[in-house]
Design a protein that fits this description.
Elements: E1 5-8, H1 12-24, E2 30-33, H2 36-45, E3 51-54, H3 63-71, E4 81-85, H4 90-98, E5 103-106, H5 111-124
Parallel strand pairs: 1-2, 1-3, 3-4, 4-5
Amino acid sequence: MEPNFLVVDDSVTMRRIVTNSLKTLGYNKFAEAADGKEALEKLNADDSINFVITDWNMPVMTGLELTKAIRGNPKTENMPILMVTTRGVKEDIIQALQARVSNYVVKPFTPQILKEKIEAILAST
Protein backbone atom coordinates (compact mmCIF):
# COMPACT_ATOMS: atom_id res chain seq x y z
CA MET A 1 0.00 0.00 0.00
CA GLU A 2 1.34 3.41 -0.95
CA PRO A 3 1.82 5.70 2.05
CA ASN A 4 -0.51 8.67 2.31
CA PHE A 5 1.33 11.01 4.66
CA LEU A 6 0.05 13.61 7.08
CA VAL A 7 2.88 16.12 7.65
CA VAL A 8 2.39 17.95 10.94
CA ASP A 9 4.53 20.97 11.81
CA ASP A 10 3.72 24.52 12.91
CA SER A 11 6.41 25.81 10.54
CA VAL A 12 5.18 26.27 6.96
CA THR A 13 8.81 26.17 5.82
CA MET A 14 9.44 22.85 7.58
CA ARG A 15 6.27 21.33 6.13
CA ARG A 16 7.48 22.42 2.68
CA ILE A 17 10.92 20.85 3.29
CA VAL A 18 9.32 17.55 4.34
CA THR A 19 6.78 17.48 1.48
CA ASN A 20 9.48 18.40 -1.06
CA SER A 21 11.66 15.60 0.34
CA LEU A 22 8.72 13.19 0.01
CA LYS A 23 8.21 14.26 -3.62
CA THR A 24 11.93 13.75 -4.29
CA LEU A 25 11.60 10.23 -2.88
CA GLY A 26 8.66 9.49 -5.18
CA TYR A 27 5.85 9.87 -2.66
CA ASN A 28 3.00 12.00 -3.95
CA LYS A 29 0.20 11.56 -1.43
CA PHE A 30 0.24 13.85 1.58
CA ALA A 31 -1.79 16.32 3.57
CA GLU A 32 -0.56 18.95 6.01
CA ALA A 33 -1.53 20.17 9.47
CA ALA A 34 -0.11 23.01 11.59
CA ASP A 35 -0.53 21.33 14.99
CA GLY A 36 -1.66 18.12 16.67
CA LYS A 37 -5.28 19.20 17.04
CA GLU A 38 -5.59 19.96 13.33
CA ALA A 39 -3.83 16.65 12.59
CA LEU A 40 -6.39 14.68 14.64
CA GLU A 41 -9.22 16.45 12.80
CA LYS A 42 -7.68 15.48 9.44
CA LEU A 43 -7.11 11.89 10.58
CA ASN A 44 -10.76 11.64 11.63
CA ALA A 45 -11.96 13.15 8.34
CA ASP A 46 -9.70 11.23 5.93
CA ASP A 47 -9.42 7.44 6.23
CA SER A 48 -6.85 7.31 3.44
CA ILE A 49 -4.11 8.88 5.62
CA ASN A 50 -1.97 6.02 6.85
CA PHE A 51 1.38 7.54 7.93
CA VAL A 52 2.09 10.55 10.18
CA ILE A 53 5.28 12.64 10.13
CA THR A 54 5.15 15.06 13.04
CA ASP A 55 7.23 17.69 14.77
CA TRP A 56 7.36 17.62 18.57
CA ASN A 57 7.30 21.34 19.44
CA MET A 58 3.99 22.85 18.32
CA PRO A 59 1.33 25.08 19.86
CA VAL A 60 -2.16 23.79 20.77
CA MET A 61 -1.11 20.10 20.81
CA THR A 62 2.48 18.83 20.68
CA GLY A 63 3.70 15.94 18.57
CA LEU A 64 4.07 13.85 21.71
CA GLU A 65 0.45 14.54 22.69
CA LEU A 66 -0.60 13.77 19.11
CA THR A 67 1.28 10.45 19.22
CA LYS A 68 -0.45 9.48 22.46
CA ALA A 69 -3.86 10.40 20.99
CA ILE A 70 -3.20 8.35 17.83
CA ARG A 71 -2.02 5.37 19.90
CA GLY A 72 -5.08 5.70 22.15
CA ASN A 73 -7.55 5.37 19.26
CA PRO A 74 -8.28 1.79 18.10
CA LYS A 75 -8.72 3.05 14.52
CA THR A 76 -5.23 4.57 14.37
CA GLU A 77 -3.28 2.81 17.13
CA ASN A 78 -0.98 0.97 14.69
CA MET A 79 -0.45 3.87 12.27
CA PRO A 80 3.23 4.58 11.53
CA ILE A 81 4.46 7.78 13.18
CA LEU A 82 7.80 9.37 12.35
CA MET A 83 8.82 12.18 14.67
CA VAL A 84 11.02 14.82 13.03
CA THR A 85 12.24 17.29 15.63
CA THR A 86 15.11 19.42 16.92
CA ARG A 87 14.87 17.60 20.26
CA GLY A 88 17.87 15.32 20.11
CA VAL A 89 18.75 14.65 23.73
CA LYS A 90 18.54 11.05 24.89
CA GLU A 91 15.74 11.71 27.40
CA ASP A 92 13.50 13.20 24.68
CA ILE A 93 14.13 10.28 22.33
CA ILE A 94 13.31 7.81 25.12
CA GLN A 95 10.12 9.74 25.95
CA ALA A 96 9.04 9.67 22.29
CA LEU A 97 9.78 5.95 21.97
CA GLN A 98 7.84 5.27 25.17
CA ALA A 99 4.89 7.08 23.56
CA ARG A 100 5.36 4.57 20.70
CA VAL A 101 6.61 6.70 17.82
CA SER A 102 7.69 4.33 15.07
CA ASN A 103 10.98 6.15 14.45
CA TYR A 104 12.73 9.43 15.21
CA VAL A 105 14.70 11.95 13.11
CA VAL A 106 16.61 14.91 14.52
CA LYS A 107 16.58 18.09 12.39
CA PRO A 108 18.33 18.99 10.20
CA PHE A 109 18.00 15.90 8.02
CA THR A 110 18.59 14.91 4.42
CA PRO A 111 16.03 13.31 2.09
CA GLN A 112 18.19 10.15 2.29
CA ILE A 113 17.78 9.96 6.08
CA LEU A 114 14.04 10.51 5.70
CA LYS A 115 13.92 7.74 3.07
CA GLU A 116 15.79 5.29 5.31
CA LYS A 117 13.50 5.97 8.27
CA ILE A 118 10.31 5.69 6.18
CA GLU A 119 11.48 2.48 4.51
CA ALA A 120 12.44 0.97 7.88
CA ILE A 121 8.99 1.77 9.26
CA LEU A 122 7.19 0.41 6.18
CA ALA A 123 9.30 -2.78 6.27
CA SER A 124 8.25 -3.42 9.88
CA THR A 125 4.49 -2.95 9.36
